[in-house]
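RECORD CONTENTS
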Amino acid sequence: MKIETAGNYISKWGEGPVWYNDKLLYVDINGCAVIIYDPNDQSEKVLPLSQRVGTVVMRNNGHLLIAGDHGFFYLDSETGVTTAIADPEPELPDNRFNDGKCSPDGRFFAGTISLTKKPGTAKLYRLDPDGSLHTAYSPVTNSNGIVWSVTGDHCYYMDTPSKEIKRFEYQPQTGELSNMAVAFNTQQYAASPDGMTIDSEGHLWIAFCHGGCVTQFDPNSGKELQQISIPCRETTACAFGGPDLSELYITTGIPGDDPELLAGRLFVVKGLGVRGVQASKFCG
C-alpha cells in the first residue's frame, strides 16, 4: 500500500470526491469551488463559485450538478455558469447543503447541515430527473455520507452526530427510502464519521473527520476490517478511482488551529487490493 498526494490544489475544506470519465471531481466547501483533477497529466481545473458548495455530481449531458448555500444548481463544466433549480430551505440561513450522491437509477440525494448544530433542523432531499424535489429523510442535524449497495437495493446513510450508519431499503421505481434500520454505529471512535464510499465486495469505507483516517467496515457486522492513516486529521471523504477503480482518493481540510503540512491536500492510496463501484450520474 502506498499513500501519495495528488495534484497541487490545497482545499480550505475538501469534500465529496467522485470519479467520472477518468477524472476526479470534488469540492472545496469553504473555498467555494469545484475541482476537476486529471491524474493523467496532473492538471486541475478549478471552477470558482459565489457560494459554498457541499457536493458535486455528473449529469448525462457531460455537465455538473451541485448543491450549496442556496440549494440545487446546474453547473456548466466548461464555463462555470450556474443555473438555479430549487432552494428548499431559504428560511434557514444557518443551514447549507453538505454531502450527496446519485442513486443507481439517476436521482440526486443531498442533505443539509445545521452550522449552529441545532438538532433536527436539517434534511436529506431527493432531486428527481424531472426536476421535482422531495424530502427523502428527516429530521437530521448534519447530513453526510450516502452510498448504495452493490446490488442497488439498499442505501447506507449517516447523520454524523448520531455516529450511526443507517440502512434503508431502496425503491428505484419511486426513489423512496424505507424500513430504516441501524446497520452499525461508530460510538467507539472519538472522531466523527464523514464521507463514505463502497467497494465491489460491499464493504464501506468511511473517512473520520478529526480522526486522520479512513476505515473499512463490514456493514453487516460493523466489524472494522482495516484502517488507513492520513497525515491530516481533518480527513473528510473518499472515493475509488483510477483506470480500474483500484485507487482510493481522499479529501482533507485545513483545521482551525495548528494545521499539518499537508492539510487540505488530495491524497491517493494505491495497492489496496480492492476495487470500487462506478459512480452514477444524474439522469436529468
